[in-house]
Design a protein that fits this description.
Length: about 270
C-alpha cells in the first residue's frame, strides 16, 4: 500500500481534523492588494508573513481556521514540497479585505521540512482540510541536508533537539563528534533553573550517555525521574580524550557540582 500524507501527520502529533493544508504557488499579487506574492527567492520570513495574511472572504478562507497549518510549496502542476507546519495563535487584525493571523513555525514535522513531496490531486485548490489531503500520496522524501557540528563549546540542546540529533541522518557528524569524547555535561531544568551535573566515562561516550536521555528523559538518574524532560536543556561543561584517567574526570565532575552548587540547590544527590 502506498504511503499517504495522513499517517505522517498523525505520527507528528497532528490530528487531521484539527489542521489545514495549504499549497502556495509562486505568484505576483496585484499592486492594489498590498501583498508582494511569492517567488523562487522568497525568504522563510516572507513566506511566513504571506501565509499569515489571508482574505476576509470566508468563502476563500475559513472563518475559524484550525490550530495547525501544514504549508507546502507547489512543484510542477501536480506536486508540492513541505515548507513548514505553522501554529495559528489567533487573528490579530481584520478589515473588509484582509485578515492577519499570528502564526509561528512549529516543530511538528520539522525533520521533513523541504524534504517531503506529495502529489496534489486538485491543481486549482490551494487550501483544504487536512482530512481531505490525508489521502494524497507521498511522492518522495529526500535525504536531509547535513547540519555542521557547531563545536563542543557551543552545544546547547533542548530535549526535542537531542532526540533529533540521536536519530536523524542530517546530524550524523554530531553523533560522530559526541562518540569521540568523554566529559562532564550539564542538564538544566528551564522551569526553575536547577542544574544536574553528570559525566560520561569508562565504557560510555557522551553520545552513548545522551542517547539514554533521548530515549527515556531521565537517563536512569533518580533525581530526574518524574520531571518533564521537555523542559531540559543539555550542554557540555568539559570534554576529555577517552584516554583520560577516570580520576581526572571524577575530579572535574566534583568541581562543577561545587561550582554550580548542584547538590544543595540543584538536582544532584551526591
Amino acid at each position: 500500500m502506498a504511503l499517504t500524507l495522513g499517517p505522517l501527520l498523525i505520527d507528528a502529533g497532528i490530528d487531521p481534523a484539527q489542521a489545514l493544508v495549504i499549497r502556495h504557488a509562486y505568484v505576483h499579487e496585484p499592486e492594489d492588494s498590498g501583498l508582494q506574492g511569492l517567488h523562487a527567492d522568497s525568504t522563510d520570513a516572507e513566506i511566513l508573513a504571506y501565509t499569515g495574511t489571508q482574505s476576509a472572504d470566508t468563502r476563500r478562507f475559513p472563518a475559524l481556521p484550525p490550530k495547525f497549518w501544514v504549508v507546502f510549496i507547489r512543484e510542477g502542476g501536480d506536486q508540492a514540497r513541505l515548507w513548514s507546519v505553522l501554529e495559528n495563535r489567533g487573528e490579530i487584525s481584520h478589515n473588509d479585505i484582509r485578515r492577519t493571523f499570528d502564526v509561528v513555525e512549529s516543530e511538528h514535522m520539522a525533520d521533513l521540512r523541504k524534504r517531503l513531496v506529495i502529489g496534489w490531486r486538485s491543481p486549482r485548490t490551494w487550501r483544504m482540510n487536512a482530512t481531505t489531503a490525508a489521502s494524497y500520496p507521498v511522492i518522495g522524501i529526500a535525504d536531509a541536508e547535513p547540519i555542521p557540528f557547531p563545536g563542543f563549546d557551543r552545544l546547547v540542546l533542548s530535549h526535542v533537539q537531542l532526540q533529533a540529533v540521536m536519530r536523524e541522518h542530517r546530524y550524523a557528524s554530531w553523533r560522530t563528534a559526541l562518540s569521540s569524547v568523554f566529559g562532564i555535561y550539564l542538564i538544566t531544568d528551564t522551569r526553575d533553573g536547577r542544574h544536574y551535573v553528570g559525566k560520561a566515562d569508562g565504557a560510555e561516550s557522551i553520545r552513548q550517555r545522551w542517547s539514554v536521555y533521548a530515549t527515556n528523559g531521565h537517563g536512569g538518574n533518580v533525581e530526574l525521574r518524574g520531571l518533564d524532560p521537555t523542559s531540559f536543556r543539555f550542554s557540555l561543561l568539559r570534554v576529555f580524550d577517552p584516554a583520560t584517567p577516570t580520576r581526572d574526570i571524577d575530579a572535574a565532575e566534583s568541581h562543577f557540582k561545587d561550582a554550580l552548587d548542584s547538590r544543595r540547590h540543584g538536582l544532584n544527590r551526591n
